[in-house]
Amino acid sequence: NTGANAADYFYGLTHMPDAVYAINDMVAIGLVNRFKELGVRVPEDIAVVGVDNNQWTTVTSPQISSVSIMGEEVARLATELLLKRIREMSTTDYEHIQFEPRLIVRESSVAMIRSSSQGPRA
């Protein structure tokens, strides 16, 4: 498991980082689970944030903070634009649409957010 391997790596460092940003939510969940096995408290000892905002982030303990890249919304809009282009037999220029990712804050990063608002850690 990539998340467990990453947790082992971070745990083996002389100084663990304050936070880990995982490539996706499943890796973040693996990190959190392995940290628990190692006795590392999330978010008190290390904050964890994933990417995707998938459904599994809310059924773990602690719940995982995640960056929502709005995959479903992107897919829905892409499908609508493609169908419109096909129906209208359009040869016009392509539209440029930009989506802004959103951080969904949950329990796995709450301590980090609190401490950063109070200044640097001791």
Structural account:
The chain has 122 residues and is an alpha/beta fold. It has a domain at 2-69 and 100-114: Rossmann fold, CATH 3.40.50. It has four helices and four strands. The protein has helices at 2-12, 25-38, 71-87, 110-117; strands spanning 19-21, 47-51, 65-68, 102-104. The protein has a four-stranded mixed β-sheet with strand order 1-2-3-4. Helix 2 links the parallel strand 1 and strand 2. The relative contact order is 0.17. The mean pLDDT is 87.
Keywords:
about 40% helix, alpha/beta, elongated, 4 helices, Rossmann fold, about 120 residues
Structural class: alpha/beta
Strand-residue proportion: 5-15%
> What is the CATH superfamily classification of the domain at 2-69 and 100-114?
Response regulator
The span between the termini is 33 Å
Q: CATH fold name of the domain at 2-69 and 100-114, please?
A: Rossmann fold
Overall pLDDT: 87
Helical fraction equals 40-55%
Low-confidence stretches: none
Query: Architecture of the domain at 2-69 and 100-114, CATH level 2?
Result: 3-Layer(aba) Sandwich
State the CATH class of the domain at 2-69 and 100-114: Alpha Beta
Oligomer: single chain
Query: Helix count, per DSSP?
Result: 4
Q: What is the count of β-strands?
A: 4
